[in-house]
Design brief:
single chain, 468 residues, Growth Hormone, Chain: A
Length: 468
């Protein structure tokens, strides 16, 4: 099979992996039931959410492993860790294991959280190596699918096991990444060389963006109550699965086009067309190499020690800390937030939040795709993603997630207990007061993150202007 087709197939495999590795994002859908089953307080429940995020503290292990081990083995290790972490919890919740303490569950959740890093590392490495000249677009588009994870899992549970959601979610968390990993493993691999011309790559990503945006629109609409009341859970599930198969149209069309071109060469202009094609490919490769060299010229290749001494790194770190991390903590608490306001259909709320989160992840890469030829946009995220060794440095950056999860989540749990007068730690807090002060605090942190982002933008804009 031609390398061009394999390139796009690898991107499709990464999309499938990203769509199911966000196992921690569906935590709100079963957190209230888990709290009852384990008879734990809100603070202890928050500790479990922190444990999942804390698994990222050791995500740099996966970065080192990707340097010395085959990527398929790194993918297998990540899937296995998730299988063990969530699988044992499932056996406990279904009473197939009787003796499992709270701290056992904590460690298993930690292990499951770490498994995401292994699969994520494989996705990042393959995407950047196979689409180096378009890595910002490719990474941004594929990671946006991770925002759909909660939506996909919720649709499966609603269709298959609507009455035992807690155990069904944990069962899927353990098994689905393994199944998809085995399917995607032959596709997700490094191609020897990037053979797609810039023109064809841009067209391919254009089609991919149309499919991706259509997927997001369907995800949002199918999460709204007036739609779910008219369409069955099975119908909604079939629809989301079809949208995940649509990216296959790109490598399929590339393959058909290559077959048609080869047939035409043999039948009509065999010798002449072969010579012209060789010349065109030579010109395209020269153009591509020039673009790659120009792109590389504005990237700093730094190690971990040097990176930690950079002001821009710490600005980016705290932008992420006061922005995306606060959002993740909000999602972890969404189950209790909805419960405190008397919302019974938490699954639909999480699906809707997941769908809009998908667009939030997609927008930066979409903007970069349309405006990169007109003006040079400061891209701190792409700089950090391209640092060498990328797979290690990226996991250093995301270490702020467990730190923020502990600080923001624990403070929210304490306010929850205080406002709910939770003398008996297992009593639920109901009413607006449960999270009112928490939202004020989170909003203030997000405002601070916005100010830091503006400062970082100004600093990196000078850097890009000088290089240009």
């Amino acid at each position: 099979m031609p390398s061009t087709t394999l390139q796009w197939l690898s991107l499709v495999g990464i999309i499938w992996l990203q769509a199911i590795i966000g196992t921690n994002t569906n935590f709100p859908t079963y957190s209230s039931q888990l709290k009852q089953l384990l008879s734990i307080s809100q603070v202890q429940l928050n500790n479990l959410a922190f444990a999942s995020d804390a698994g990222k503290l050791f995500g740099w292990f996966s970065g080192l492993a990707s340097i010395y081990l085959p990527l398929w083995l790194v993918l297998l290790i990540g899937s296995t860790l998730g299988l063990v972490g969530y699988g044992v919890q499932y056996l406990y919740i279904t009473n197939q294991i009787s003796s499992l303490s709270y701290w056992h569950v904590f460690l298993l959740t930690f292990l499951a959280g770490n498994s995401i890093c292994w699969i994520n590392t494989v996705c990042y490495v393959v995407t950047i190596r196979n689409f180096f000249s378009d890595r910002e677009v490719a990474v941004g588009m594929t990671t946006s699918y991770q925002g759909l994870s909660a939506k996909i899992y919720a649709n499966i549970v609603d269709a298959v096991s609507p009455h035992k959601k807690a155990s069904a979610f944990i069962f899927l968390n353990s098994l689905l990444p393994v199944i998809v990993g085995l399917i995607a493993a032959p596709l997700v691999r490094e191609i020897d060389e990037e053979v797609t011309s810039p023109k064809h790559t841009r067209v391919g990503f254009g089609v991919m963006f149309v499919i991706t945006i259509s997927t997001g629109i369907y995800a949002v609409l199918s999460s709204l109550q007036f739609v779910t009341s008219k369409v069955s859970s099975l119908g909604t599930l079939v629809g989301i699965l079809v949208t995940l198969l649509l990216p296959l149209l790109v490598p399929l069309s590339v393959k058909i086009k290559e077959l048609q071109e080869n047939t035409e060469k043999v039948r009509i202009y065999h010798f002449t067309m072969e010579e012209n094609t060789t010349s065109e490919e030579r010109v395209e490769n020269e153009v591509k190499e020039g673009e790659v060299q120009e792109e590389v010229g504005i990237i700093e290749e730094v190690g971990v020690k040097l990176m930690l001494r950079r002001i821009n790194f710490w600005l980016y770190f705290f932008v992420y800390f006061f922005g995306a991390t606060v959002g993740l903590v909000y999602l972890n608490n969404l189950g209790q937030i909805a419960e405190s306001r008397g919302c019974s259909n938490i699954s639909s709320l999480v699906s809707l939040s997941s769908s809009f989160g998908f667009f939030g992840r997609l927008m930066p890469s979409l903007m970069y795709y349309f405006y990169r030829g007109k003006c040079r946009i400061s891209r701190p995220a792409s700089m950090l993603a391209a640092m060498v060794p990328m797979s290690v440095n990226h996991n250093v950056v995301v270490a702020n997630i467990p730190i923020g999860s502990l600080i923001f989540g624990y403070s929210a749990a304490l306010i929850y207990r205080k406002e709910g007068h939770e003398h008996d730690e297992h009593v639920k807090c109901m009413g607006m007061e449960c999270y009112r002060n928490t939202f004020i605090m989170w909003g203030s942190f997000c405002f601070l993150g916005t100010l830091l982002a503006l400062i970082l933008h100004a600093r990196t804009r000078k850097f890009f202007s000088q290089k240009q």
